[in-house]
From TrEMBL:
Ranges of residues in domain Ketoreductase: 7-185
Family the UniProt entry places it in: Belongs to the short-chain dehydrogenases/reductases (SDR) family.
SUPFAM superfamilies cross-referenced by the UniProt entry: NAD(P)-binding Rossmann-fold domains
Sections of the chain in a coiled coil: none
Keywords annotated in UniProt: Oxidoreductase
Name of this protein: SDR family oxidoreductase
GO molecular function: oxidoreductase activity, acting on CH-OH group of donors
Superkingdom of the source species: Bacteria
Database matches in InterPro entries: KR_dom (IPR057326), NAD(P)-bd_dom_sf (IPR036291), Sc_DH/Rdtase_CS (IPR020904), SDR_fam (IPR002347)
Organism: Pyxidicoccus fallax
Amino acid sequence: MNAQPQKVALVTGASRGIGAAIARRLARDGFAVIVNYAERAGPAEALVREIEQAGGRALAVQADVADSADVRRLFDAAEKSFGGVDVLVNNAGIMRLSSIADTDDASFDRHIAVNLKGTFNALREASRRLRRGGRIINFSSSVVGLLQPTYAVYAATKAGVEAMTGVLAKELRGRDITVNAVAPGPTATDLFLEGKPQEVVDRMAKMAPLERLGQPEDIANTVAFLAGPDAGWVNGQVLRANGGII
Ligand SMILES: NC(=O)c1ccc[n+]([C@@H]2O[C@H](COP(=O)([O-])OP(=O)(O)OC[C@H]3O[C@@H](n4cnc5c(N)ncnc54)[C@H](OP(=O)(O)O)[C@@H]3O)[C@@H](O)[C@H]2O)c1
């Protein structure tokens, strides 16, 4: 009678940090969830068990988003296990900070490979395979506006993600698919905290008028809005979720 097929969300980089919070939240909202990870199978499998124990459906799938064959395999796995993909959350990303003078070729190339090409790889698959009525949520960063020293390469990749967001929203005309980006500010995850002295963390936490770091759940709430029914008219936008830092 009421048997709507279960919607499926594919979350890249969902073994920890913001992606894990998104997978948890979308599972709670009724999605079957693909928990993608690059290397850490243990936390990804543990998250799948947690979701299943709460009555949800999830599957952990290893794939390096920088590798287009891996990303095709990731979508294949989603289709094989859950029948298709309705929501892509393009969350996987890396950040290694250094001034332009001190950035080596390997660091530059890896940022481009994971943050820009990785996002592109998943956007290309999604634009070919996402079901009608789907949602795509990319990951930018508020540093695209803040432009702090040492963030040049990372911010450049995220500016590219914002550009692709606007273009793909238009390319998907007629398919009832929205494409948006979330741009978090400083959020308490490994990516932000690793290598920062406590005083830098404390100073950055005070930068937003709300005077705290974002938590992964703050960002997951924003993604849940964009993935859910209330955001149906929001398309081609970048939503900065950052406590007002910029
Ligand atoms: N935290 C912040 O302050 C902040 C602010 C603005 C924007 N963001 C953005 O938010 C997103 C999530 O960041 P986070 O803070 O949650 O990062 P994180 O804690 O470092 O977690 C990164 C996740 O991405 C996965 N990953 C990394 N490289 C990958 C690859 N090549 N292929 C597939 N998965 C890969 C990791 O998998 P493994 O566990 O297997 O390594 C992990 O699950 C990123 O796009 C980041 O740029 C974060």
